[in-house]
Design a protein that fits this description.
By secondary structure, this protein is an all-alpha fold. 76% of the residues lie in helices and 2% in strands. It has a two-stranded antiparallel ribbon with strand order 1-2. β1 and β2 form a beta hairpin.
Length: 258
């Protein structure tokens, strides 16, 4: 139980650590650093989606070519779900000032918070799903592998927390307000993970679909939010390097611990 609690809180601690950058950095985050961190976060999420979610989803099926069906269906449903949330919710894309979704009178801070909530929801679901699989004794998912997913998402959350809190500080907010809002942006992750765990007994028959659903949702965030911002403007080569490092780090972490 203690391992489970720690595993659920690890991603939130990563967000808090990144948000704490406002206490150590005087100026706004440099473009070079932001590009590198966005690429790094993208690499971690893609590797986690493949090794920790999609591959176990296919391995849980019958040993035939049809085992790919739950992974394919779940992946498309995850992408579609995030697309629907994106269209129905007023928000700001990370790193931009351009509102998306329906018109709203919400403040920039509120819309940014909604964007981060959309971003973090699939990550929390991914943690909850892999821990549910590990706790149920499914051979394809070990407890160490579930911890690896939580650690990988926590690593990804460090730059994410900084990317949220630093611009808020640059916009004139206090260091503590920027830190708190940046930290709260990750609060949806343990909430989503706990919700999945509470429904674990009902979700076990569709666990392969749920694993792929979380992967599809995470891929949507990478394609829609992270990569466009990382690739635009100058220094996009740094985001490519960051992606490679993040991908390899998460791949090694998952294989070694899984």
């Amino acid at each position: 139980m203690m391992t489970l609690i720690v595993g659920l809180l690890i991603p939130l601690l990563g967000t808090m650590l990144g948000s704490a950058f406002v206490f150590f950095m005087k100026d706004e985050m440099s473009v070079r650093l932001q590009k590198t961190l966005l690429g790094f976060a993208s690499g971690v999420m893609v590797a986690a989606s493949v090794w920790s979610l999609l591959i176990p989803s296919m391995e849980m099926g019958a040993p035939s070519s049809w085992s790919v069906v739950p992974a394919a269906v779940g992946f498309l449903l995850g992408m579609g779900f995030l697309l629907m949330i994106d269209e129905l919710t007023p928000h700001l894309h990370i790193g931009t000032d351009k509102p998306e979704g329906p018109r709203s009178r919400l403040s920039r801070t509120a819309m940014l918070a909604l964007a981060v909530t959309i971003h973090n929801l699939p990550e929390g679901m991914a943690v909850g799903v892999v821990f549910a699989g590990a706790e149920s004794g499914i051979s394809n998912i070990s407890l160490a592998g579930a911890i690896a997913v939580a650690l990988g998402i926590a690593i990804q959350n460090v730059p994410e927390g900084a990317i949220i809190s630093m611009p808020m500080r640059a916009a004139g907010n206090s260091k503590w307000k920027s830190f708190i809002i940046g930290s709260l942006s990750g609060a949806v992750e343990p909430v989503g993970a706990i919700a999945v765990l509470l429904l674990a007994s009902l979700l076990m028959p569709v666990l392969p679909y749920m694993l792929a659903f979380a992967a599809g949702a995470m891929f949507y965030v990478v394609i829609e939010e992270l990569i466009p911002e990382a690739s635009s403007g100058q220094h996009s080569n740094l985001s490519t390097i960051g992606f490679a490092i993040g991908f390899v780090l998460m791949m090694v972490l998952d294989v070694v611990m899984g």
